[in-house]
């Protein structure tokens, strides 16, 4: 039987990483720092925000549940577009993120609100 070999770099060393410069987004008018590659949810969590949507019926607060784009609990309005999954959407400099009440169509941009949602 062959003896087990110890890996020379065990445990593995972390890769050196240098994050890009921070930029700013807003959440309900509040300026928040963000990094390239972060999702909307990551930016909100880093700022201590854990709920950014109300349920349609009872108006209960919601934020991230699954974190992988499956449950749709994290819906948020980004730049006037409602129903964006915060756990999947990457932030961009200057994004205006807003709490989404209900279906989110009440305050959607006209070009995003089709006839079905008026
Ligand atoms: S947390 Fe489930 S879809 Fe975003």
Question: What would you say this structure looks like, in words?
Answer:
With 118 residues, the protein is mainly beta. The chain is 6% helix and 22% strand. It contains one helix and seven strands; from the N terminus they run ββαβββββ. The strands form two sheets. Strands 2-1-7-5-6 form a five-stranded mixed β-sheet, covered by helices on one side. A two-stranded antiparallel ribbon has the order 3-4. The longest helix is centred in the middle third of the chain and has 7 residues, at 40-46. The chain binds FE2/S2 (inorganic) cluster. FE2/S2 (inorganic) cluster binds next to loops.
Helix-strand pattern:
EEHEEEEE
Strand order of the largest sheet: 2-1-7-5-6
Shape: elongated
What's the total helix number?
1
The value of Rg in angstroms is 19 Å
- How many β strands by DSSP? 7
Mean pLDDT rating: 86
The biggest beta sheet reads: 5 strands, mixed
Ends apart, CA distance between termini: 73 Å
Low-confidence stretches: none
Helix-strand makeup class: mainly beta
Question: What's the arrangement of secondary structure elements?
Answer:
Blueprint lengths: L22 E5 L2 E5 L5 H7 L6 E2 L6 E2 L12 E4 L2 E5 L10 E3 L20
Bound molecules: FE2/S2 (inorganic) cluster (FES).
FE2/S2 (inorganic) cluster binds next to loops.
Summary tags:
binds FE2/S2 (inorganic) cluster, two-stranded antiparallel ribbon, elongated, five-stranded mixed beta sheet, 118 residues, mainly beta
